[in-house]
Write a structure and sequence with these properties.
By secondary structure, the chain is mainly alpha-helical. It has helices spanning 3-11, 17-20, 32-46, 56-61, 63-72, 83-101, 120-128, 130-147, 151-160, 163-180, 186-203, 221-224, 231-236, 244-277, 319-326, 337-356, 366-377, 390-400, 406-409, 413-416; strands spanning 104-106, 115-117, 207-210, 213-218, 294-297, 314-317. The chain has 2 domains: 3-224; 277-416, no CATH class. It contains 20 helices and 6 strands.
Length: 420
């Protein structure tokens, strides 16, 4: 699903809260990073099957969820006595949002909620990367506010940014919510208000709200995340001088998040390759007739951790290509530079076809690919390349691999170089 298609989907629906009376169209746990992982957990639990029914508890108890959520968000054990109240909100609130948006369908009766995937492409879009999830969330919020006749109040503050406009906006939202939904406590309204205003403010690089007051500086991306690295200290009021135990916990959290993001990125590349490349290797080679079961980091994960979870840095290869060509003699810490060049040519072709071809999905991101190339090649030369200018991109790649030895993998050049 492209961003234009996300717009089309949102614009095709009426989210007027005055009609639905649904107070749970958004809630405190509904941040982009949480919505992403819940969408991913749903996809893994259902196996991408739109006919599979599930409950909040099914997602909560799924082994994939247990393996990831507990470690990433430092939550109590999913099976512990402490978990019930903590996880009820953590899972139910984003699922309520996804249902109200139309990504999910509630087919339950009375008080029992059973869900099915209503729009698989939208759910995959959300689970692809955090920027996608934030894009969906921000535009979903804007559309709900517009349909509900309250967006002008938010726009007024975002335009003028005064203290009085902020106070007026907050009171308008509280009055609206208490009037049209079952929420009747102003404190709960204020907590939800932050989750609505700040994504809008971030998208426009504007002031938002911090601790119930207007922010003195524009809202940052980190402030929108539920899983902020320093969230434990902030919630407890502790200083930055954390204990060794707390430091170790945070490091475990960072490691768990990194592992999760890398594995999720590999699954995305593998699924994309199966759907649009018939599971064959992205590096076309006449003698390789088996499926591409290996997902390879073009620039090694150990050397370039900052781009280790970029799908633009991952390529689907056959086992032989992976252990004999990318990593000669299966030396995983060694990358054959000549074959790396071939991988970059092939990956450029994949990305170009995805962004410019007939079956355009925008799974890949041109700017993210430039980040991968800049980082992996230790340069900033790719910053100057205009959006979707693949000819200039290839010229720049060629310059960095001008020492390519045609005696090694020269026979792979013609089939893997993109046709411009």
């Amino acid at each position: 699903m492209t961003r234009e298609e996300v717009f089309e989907f949102l614009n095709s629906r009426n989210y007027d809260v005055r009609i639905s009376g649904n107070a749970r169209w958004i809630d405190q746990k509904c941040t982009a990073d949480v919505i992403l992982i819940i969408a991913d957990c749903i996809l893994q639990h259902t196996g991408y099957n739109t006919e599979t029914e599930f409950t909040v508890s099914d997602i909560w108890q799924d082994q994939y969820t247990k393996d990831n959520v507990e470690a990433i968000f430092l939550k109590p054990n999913l099976d512990s006595n402490m978990a019930n109240n903590e996880y009820n909100k953590y899972f139910s609130q984003p699922i309520n949002l996804l249902e109200y948006s139309g990504a999910l369908l509630d087919i339950g009766t009375n008080s029992r909620h059973n869900y099915k995937i209503n729009n698989l492409e939208l759910l995959e879009f959300i689970a692809l990367r955090e920027t996608n999830s934030l894009f969906f969330l921000t535009n979903y919020i804007r559309k709900v506010l517009q349909d509900s006749g309250i967006y002008d109040s938010f726009q007024n503050f975002l335009d003028n940014q005064t203290h009085n406009d902020f106070i007026q906006l907050k009171q308008t939202f509280i009055d609206f919510t208490i009037t049209h939904t079952r929420i009747n406590k102003w404190l709960e309204c204020r907590r939800i208000f932050t989750k609505i205003l700040n994504p809008l403010a971030f998208s426009l690089q504007k002031l938002g709200t911090r601790r119930g007051f207007p922010s003195s500086t524009p809202i940052t991306l980190d402030e929108l995340r539920y899983n902020r690295i320093n969230w434990r200290d902030e919630l407890s009021g502790k200083s930055k001088n954390i204990t060794r135990q707390e430091y170790n916990e945070q490091q475990q959290q960072v490691d768990a998040t990194s592992r999760y993001n890398v594995e999720r990125a590999k699954r995305i590349v593998r699924r994309f390759n199966a759907q649009y490349h018939n599971s064959v290797s992205e590096v076309l080679q006449d003698t390789e007739l088996v499926n591409a079961t290996q997902i390879h980091h073009i620039f090694p994960e150990s050397e370039f951790p900052s781009i280790s979870d970029y799908i633009e840095n991952l390529i689907a290869l056959t086992p032989n290509q992976h252990i004999s060509m990318a990593h000669p003699n299966n030396q995983t810490r060694y990358i054959d530079r000549d074959f790396q060049y071939i991988c970059l040519l092939a990956k450029t072709k994949t990305i170009m076809n995805d962004l410019l071809g007939e079956s355009r999905t925008e799974t890949y991101n041109f700017d993210s690919y430039k980040t991968v190339l800049n980082t992996g090649l230790g340069t900033d030369d790719f910053d100057a390349i205009e959006y979707l200018n693949f000819a200039s991109l290839l010229e720049k790649i060629d310059l960095f691999y001008s020492d390519f030895n045609t005696d090694s993998y020269g026979y792979l050049l013609e089939r893997n170089r993109p046709l411009l």
